[in-house]
From TrEMBL, chains A, B, C, D:
<keyword id="KW-0560">Oxidoreductase</keyword>
<dbReference type="InterPro" id="IPR006115">
    <property type="entry name" value="6PGDH_NADP-bd"/>
</dbReference>
<keyword id="KW-0311">Gluconate utilization</keyword>
<feature type="domain" description="6-phosphogluconate dehydrogenase C-terminal">
    <location>
        <begin position="185"/>
        <end position="328"/>
    </location>
</feature>
<dbReference type="GO" id="GO:0019521">
    <property type="term" value="P:D-gluconate metabolic process"/>
</dbReference>
<dbReference type="GO" id="GO:0050661">
    <property type="term" value="F:NADP binding"/>
</dbReference>
<protein>
    <submittedName>
        <fullName>6-phosphogluconate dehydrogenase, decarboxylating</fullName>
    </submittedName>
</protein>
<dbReference type="InterPro" id="IPR006183">
    <property type="entry name" value="Pgluconate_DH"/>
</dbReference>
<dbReference type="GO" id="GO:0006098">
    <property type="term" value="P:pentose-phosphate shunt"/>
</dbReference>
<comment type="similarity">
    <text>Belongs to the 6-phosphogluconate dehydrogenase family.</text>
</comment>
<dbReference type="InterPro" id="IPR008927">
    <property type="entry name" value="6-PGluconate_DH-like_C_sf"/>
</dbReference>
<dbReference type="InterPro" id="IPR004849">
    <property type="entry name" value="6DGDH_YqeC"/>
</dbReference>
<dbReference type="InterPro" id="IPR013328">
    <property type="entry name" value="6PGD_dom2"/>
</dbReference>
<dbReference type="Pfam" id="PF00393">
    <property type="entry name" value="6PGD"/>
</dbReference>
<dbReference type="GO" id="GO:0004616">
    <property type="term" value="F:phosphogluconate dehydrogenase (decarboxylating) activity"/>
</dbReference>
<dbReference type="InterPro" id="IPR006114">
    <property type="entry name" value="6PGDH_C"/>
</dbReference>
<comment type="pathway">
    <text>Carbohydrate degradation; pentose phosphate pathway.</text>
</comment>
Amino acid sequence: MQVGMVGLGRMGGNIVRRLMQSGHTAVVYDHHPDAVTGLAGEGATGSESLEDLVARLDAPRVVWVMLPAGDITEATIQQLAGLLEDGDTIIDGGNTFWQDDVRRAGELRSRGLHYIDVGTSGGVWGLERGYCLMIGGETVIVERLDPIFAALAPGRGDLPVTPGREGRDPRAEQGYIHAGPSGAGHFVKMIHNGIEYGLMQAYAEGFDILRNAASPILPPEHRFNFDVADVAEVWRRGSVITSWLLDLTATALAEDEHLSTYSGYVEDSGEGRWTIQAAIDEAVPAEVLTAALYARFRSRQEHTFAEKMLSAMRKGFGGHVEARKPEGEGA
Amino acid sequence: MQVGMVGLGRMGGNIVRRLMQSGHTAVVYDHHPDAVTGLAGEGATGSESLEDLVARLDAPRVVWVMLPAGDITEATIQQLAGLLEDGDTIIDGGNTFWQDDVRRAGELRSRGLHYIDVGTSGGVWGLERGYCLMIGGETVIVERLDPIFAALAPGRGDLPVTPGREGRDPRAEQGYIHAGPSGAGHFVKMIHNGIEYGLMQAYAEGFDILRNAASPILPPEHRFNFDVADVAEVWRRGSVITSWLLDLTATALAEDEHLSTYSGYVEDSGEGRWTIQAAIDEAVPAEVLTAALYARFRSRQEHTFAEKMLSAMRKGFGGHVEARKPEGEGA
Amino acid sequence: MQVGMVGLGRMGGNIVRRLMQSGHTAVVYDHHPDAVTGLAGEGATGSESLEDLVARLDAPRVVWVMLPAGDITEATIQQLAGLLEDGDTIIDGGNTFWQDDVRRAGELRSRGLHYIDVGTSGGVWGLERGYCLMIGGETVIVERLDPIFAALAPGRGDLPVTPGREGRDPRAEQGYIHAGPSGAGHFVKMIHNGIEYGLMQAYAEGFDILRNAASPILPPEHRFNFDVADVAEVWRRGSVITSWLLDLTATALAEDEHLSTYSGYVEDSGEGRWTIQAAIDEAVPAEVLTAALYARFRSRQEHTFAEKMLSAMRKGFGGHVEARKPEGEGA
Amino acid sequence: MQVGMVGLGRMGGNIVRRLMQSGHTAVVYDHHPDAVTGLAGEGATGSESLEDLVARLDAPRVVWVMLPAGDITEATIQQLAGLLEDGDTIIDGGNTFWQDDVRRAGELRSRGLHYIDVGTSGGVWGLERGYCLMIGGETVIVERLDPIFAALAPGRGDLPVTPGREGRDPRAEQGYIHAGPSGAGHFVKMIHNGIEYGLMQAYAEGFDILRNAASPILPPEHRFNFDVADVAEVWRRGSVITSWLLDLTATALAEDEHLSTYSGYVEDSGEGRWTIQAAIDEAVPAEVLTAALYARFRSRQEHTFAEKMLSAMRKGFGGHVEARKPEGEGA
């Protein structure tokens, strides 16, 4: 099939490459001309503007928008909507808030356009591993675009087959699903990222306790100097907590078990926050996912106002005057 | 009654003063001779050593130990146990782990001595407000010492009477209780402090959100510049969240609404930790009390190893390179 | 002054009563005619419809809307906006989401109307204790309505004066503040409720640990049978955790220390949820306030899907088959 | 090598089998004679008592104790200690609290015996997958027993090699490590389980939010009916959150996506609790691991006393009377 791709960053560029590896063709656009030239050199058809991109695509057109930020995505889709024709499809493969998909699909539908939201996991590894795709939108369009999704997905691979899946959707075993109507794709991706935060924090806390087992605040007979790189490695085989995140952790610790090149300042993206919002809307307790998000918030401040207020109260009732200097980092 | 007091710091000294205000007498000892001299000048009988203190007390003796740290308290009580006689009583009014009381009471009982554990709340305000006393140990001894406890407790004051207390222990309305056998006093005090952590953190988080309502990361139409000192003050009257801790908070914010003299480094004492240990032993979920403790742990580090590990994983799967510098503090 | 009141439930009715006690007059409306008749019998002017209410008020009119649910409040305010005239003022004293205030104030402004949002704390006790008022909106209107707010607020009372407040807004010490522009009043009330959840949960967890200290899962020598009613009472005097919520707790436990008439099913209202949303928008970690909300979510389910999933995984890796029946409640 | 095995349950029996598959020999004992007979039929040497087991082993003996509960393990080791001779070794492969290892190793050392603590992960899958082993104790003994550990461990398998491990301990890549002195093995296993709880809870919460996306409390246009079995399956390939626990989850959901055979009552074992104790001893914030533990505590109660107390306070300040019946479970 032929796909138009808008946005040729780390994700968009590799998606085009993976599509072309399966025999699909692509017309590409990016506001950095170099990115366009680069991919054109690999076999894609370059374009100089959204108008040019649309003009070079055969109807019914499929334009995949893969842009990093919400407002640029919104603006681009609005602009594309003005250029496309009845029956064309826009795919948003970025990290869009699912309620925006619901709204946007309705707006585009009234203009005769189709809209598909695709949550795309795989990061910098997707070109090689394939992309795990969570797709929302009209069934007929999702089925029409199946060759694209099948090409991007990782495929069955050598993973053991899940028993009991007879009669269930075979696409899930290839690494892509049609999750539901508009917004469903990004909703599932949102939860994926929410879980990701929780998993990461669970490993991080466990290793933090391991590392601080050497802390001088402990009695000497209860201290251990663990080689955390070896611990991460040993857990990769035969343990209950084997995972891809653990593999990555083992790699990072093998390089530098003190992680001394990292500041400890940790960003969060919208999905983690939207996950908590969804939990609250549904009245589902989500302690772990929320705590994982808050740990990132806290990591980005030297001290919170809340902490100063604790000190102020302690002084108020107990005359405690808190130390003015933070401790050094753990062990 | 006559009481021996060992430890004349902020707490011990004022307990002696409050006892003397009610006509009780005290023989006092501290390893700082100045503290002894000072209280002697206020009417107490000074002593030069534990031996001297014991010699100056009439049998059956009552010695109140009011020392800040667990190991000194233990050593002092062991030493006293060697000096006292059958029928004498040791009171530990410090912040002792209740399981130590259980053990210690057994040891002293076998030597013919009585042991009373008293959780003492009131801090620097106790001399004026009175001390809230949570007492553990043998009933007969607790009753014999009642005049002491009654003198130290705040008394009924002008607080509204709790309806429905007819037939219940009137001591609770005076501000002291016999909570149960040995350890019960410190157990109740431990929970008091655990709750205290939770209450403090609840206020602190609320004010943090208020203060960061002016944050530039918010859309301009959704920002507020609250006067947090006025907010604390207004909540003191008629709101659901009035409390003594709020009164203290209002005072601190009236002095400096930015709390700029506080570092944000917050200590914790044993009771907060033991409370969590008790919760876990009993399989009681105690999310709020635990989160309050962890906020203090976190406040004492620049960055945790856990946070660095999050950054390492993010780099591993997404190629994210985290900023090296922490943000400034909130708004 | 003259005030129109729409909504004569527990809150609206008592607000009218407290206003009339201070010599203000009220025109009242409720869709239950009995409520109107009742207050008319106490001196208010009854009305039969919003039109009638508006007709009976002198310009510039002040209409206080005090309704329980967000959608009825919205509809009522829209309807009132069509009846009122240039220069009139609508007060929303209910529990409105502050972003709705921001929007609504803008809409009404364009129609020549003023809008004031008032967060009102005090519950069923407000008639007697007074209402703690957190007010948002235009300064000139807030000042014009000052007699109303002053009459409703608790006043200074016999609470100790907060040192250091010289030169600060004296209204805060009377129990009301002008918190900022539209939305500010309900924002501060929202945080008040968020803190309220946290405080309540802190006490609740502490008492849960106390009560389960008698649990048979503990070794016999480490069990205590605490009288939790006495513990609540003793903490009311001289402790660090004295508060109005503790007073209420002491009353509830004095009536029935087993709280056997309560199901343990706990509702939450919008403010607790919006507080967390605000925290997330501001990137402020709010562990305790969030945990308090989630405890309520959890209380309303027999079992979560999450818990079943834990059992499923445990069976998967360890062959564990979980018990089918829940334990009885704690000790 | 020759190993004595005490305890032929799910774990002990399979460990013997896996050892025999690699050419090692075993003398086995269990207080259920059938278990002994069974394994004898597979090639092991049966024994009728601990004395008999010891008599049948060649010096220096190696006895692996693999028993489910702490007190039986302790008693068995004490009994063995009286039967063994200078230079013999006891291995505790169960889930022992690491501080017991520290104490026990010291006691046995004074009697001329060696003690090795082995944290063993693998559950019912270990016979096939191999056991991930975390070993504590004297280096010379750990090295002497290397053939046993190497046989039990999963081996390198077809997992990608972690870059940067050149020069690091090659045993970690085989699935076993010598983690440190006595207690270190069980400490690392404890943290493994603590992390396990956190990972499980992260998945569980995410799927709970997915499932409740169909809840009737949501506006109809924001509801989704996800096929959670397909979601679990799709995440197995190419996503960031692939793991063995996810594989198990996919299997459970493929069998029954409602998990209707599970009660939702979830046990916890000592390791999860000890992990939190270690975190607190080290002053390491461990929000996620703790929240995961508390979710299990909560799952085992119909209602907590804490929840009833919340209702009591709500009634106290707001006149709220809580519903008496819990809601049904989420959507």
